[in-house]
Amino acid sequence: MRTAAFASREELADALASFFVAELLLPSRPLWIVTPWISDVQLIDNRSGRFRGLLPTMAKRWLRLGEVLELHLVRGGGVVVACRPDAHNLAFVDQIRGKAQSIGAERQLRVCESAELHEKGILADEVLLSGSMNLTYNGLRRLEESVHLNRDPDTVARTRAAYKQRWGEPQWT
């Protein structure tokens, strides 16, 4: 998917919302988020309540990435975030660490940092989203991006092995 036009950006936003709703229904252990830049972006538009049939407790408003990751942890998932050690990212990282601690899920969250990180990927149990997009407002709503969704079991397994080798095995798996 390429996001050169407004309509394609909306398609990407819808695809990401669907991806993360699916994660809330059946959380990955872990969900890997590898991105140089990360923000507490608006991620799931539930203002109309369209996801309440699947997740009845979901608020009837926009849900931000931090809230979605908190719900993911509450529902038994694990999260690994790899990003650059930049003040912008660290503000978000501190926020999700606080959320994890407040719900007693700090062991289900792992944060890794690398100043040279350029790779971008979101890896669930059976799906890999990869491409040029960072999880920021600009990445989701402003810049031209290229994002690929891959469900090939071999590609998913190889990516998981590479992430484990680079970022370490999460302690809860």
Description of the molecule:
- By secondary structure, this protein is of the alpha/beta class.
- Helices cover 39% and strands 18% of the residues.
- It is built from five helices and eight strands, in the order H-E-E-E-H-E-H-E-E-E-H-E-H.
- Strands 5-4-1-6-7-8 form a six-stranded mixed sheet, with helices on both faces. A two-stranded antiparallel ribbon has the order 2-3.
- The longest helix is centred in the first third of the chain and has 20 residues, at 6-25.
- The chain is globular and about 40 Å long.
- The termini are far apart.
- The mean pLDDT is 89.
Question: Can you describe this structure in just a few lines?
Answer:
The chain has helices at 6-25, 65-74, 87-102, 137-142, 153-167; strands at residues 31-34, 42-45, 62-64, 79-83, 109-113, 121-123, 128-131, 147-150. With 173 residues, it is an alpha/beta fold.
**How helical, in percent, are the residues?**
25-40%
CA-CA gap between termini: 32 Å
Task: Tell me the radius of gyration.
Answer: 15 Å
β-sheet strand percentage = 15-25%
The helix tally amounts to: 5
**Poorly predicted tracts of residues:** none
Mean pLDDT: 89
Top keywords for this entry?
173 residues, two-stranded antiparallel ribbon, alpha/beta, 18% strand, 5 helices, six-stranded mixed beta sheet
SSE topology:
Layout: H1 6-25, E1 31-34, E2 42-45, E3 62-64, H2 65-74, E4 79-83, H3 87-102, E5 109-113, E6 121-123, E7 128-131, H4 137-142, E8 147-150, H5 153-167
Parallel strand pairs: 1-4, 4-5
Antiparallel strand pairs: 1-6, 2-3, 6-7, 7-8
Helix pairs in contact: 2-3
